[in-house]
Automatic annotation (TrEMBL):
This is SDR family oxidoreductase. Residues 14-69 form the RCK N-terminal domain. It comes from Undibacterium curvum. SUPFAM superfamilies: NAD(P)-binding Rossmann-fold domains. It comes from the Bacteria. InterPro entries: NAD(P)-bd_dom_sf (IPR036291), NAD(P)-dependent_oxidoreduct (IPR051783), RCK_N (IPR003148), RmlD-like-bd (IPR029903). It holds the Pfam family RmlD_sub_bind. Signal peptide: none annotated. Residues 102-276 form the RmlD-like substrate binding domain.
């Protein structure tokens, strides 16, 4: 007599905030998981289905709309940014209220949580020191998720992400407008990751990250911000950004832009290579921008 075996379906995974990076992540996950994608825009449902995800309509700012997510998936990727005001991340708080116990969650945070580090190079052991409202909300979200993970016996990993770039995420319009950059003497070190490499890194973190571990999702670049702009300008045949002193720049850019140009840090990425086995497709910005130029020309 033949034994009857119950067919086991794919595990369920939920992407919260399925924008550009989430769409790049889908092809890496859909063969292994039954993927759901939370969206607040019903008009995106067809796009998500075509990419291999099951759309779930809900809004992180409306807790009642999230009830259908309760128990939906044991694997989660949280890509949704906080709201643009307040010191807490109410969206992550609303999400944590309906998450199941004993699940796995990758939270995509920001390297901005470190604040200005004066160009110092450091690893994930450095304490956070947020210096603007955006970063303060991110630290609040990280801490909230740590508390949730302990209480629910879940496995949390945090990826701290710098400037994300790709062929369609380059500062070309900024260069065409002639927006200024800082002089070499006052410029800041900036960090980067290609969007495709970030998607791969999220996938690796789901399976290989240690519990409650922080990882720097950065490439091997060691560039100042204006040098990055010059690299893109030269690659695409555009004028280089004019260089101004910080005092001059304050008169021409918004406070938000100025805050991005006021924090200097260089992040070590050995942990993603050593613990996650990450092999960067674009190990530095030079490689990524060159590939983007070849793809667009």
């Amino acid at each position: 007599m033949k034994k009857q075996f119950k067919k086991i379906g794919k595990p369920r995974l939920l992407i919260i905030g399925c924008g550009d990076v989430g769409m790049r992540l889908l092809p890496l996950l859909r063969e292994r998981f039954r993927v759901f994608a939370l969206t607040s825009q019903p008009a995106r449902a067809a796009e998500l289905r075509a990419a291999g995800a099951i759309p779930v309509i809900g809004n992180l700012d409306q807790p009642a709309s999230l009830r259908r997510l309760k128990g939906l998936a044991q694997w989660l990727v949280h890509l949704a940014p906080p709201k643009a005001e307040g010191e807490m991340d109410s969206r992550t708080r609303n999400l944590a209220a309906i998450l199941p116990d004993k699940c796995r969650l990758v939270y995509v945070s920001t390297t901005g949580v470190y604040g200005d580090c004066g160009g110092a190079e450091f690893d994930e052991c450095r304490p956070v020191a947020p210096q603007n409202a955006r970063a303060i909300r991110r630290v609040a979200a990280e801490n909230l998720l740590r508390d949730w993970a302990r209480a629910s016996q879940s496995r949390l990993s945090i990826l701290r992400v710098p400037g994300i770039y790709a062929a369609d995420r380059l500062p070309l319009e900024r260069l065409r407008k002639g927006s200024p950059a800082l002089t070499a003497a006052e410029d800041v070190y900036t960090n980067h990751i290609h969007a495709d490499d970030l998607a791969s890194l999220i996938c690796l973190a789901l399976f290989r990250a240690k519990p409650s571990r922080v990882y720097h999702a950065v490439d091997d670049s060691d560039l100042k911000m204006a040098d990055y702009f010059d690299l893109v300008a030269d690659q695409f045949g555009l004028p280089r950004a004019p260089r101004l002193t910080r005092a001059e720049l304050m008169q021409q850019v918004s406070p938000v832009q100025l805050s991005f140009m006021s924090e200097s840090r260089r992040l070590d990425n050995q942990r993603i290579q050593r613990e996650l086995g990450m092999r960067l497709r674009y190990p530095d910005v030079q490689a990524g921008v060159a590939a983007a130029s070849a793809a667009l020309t």
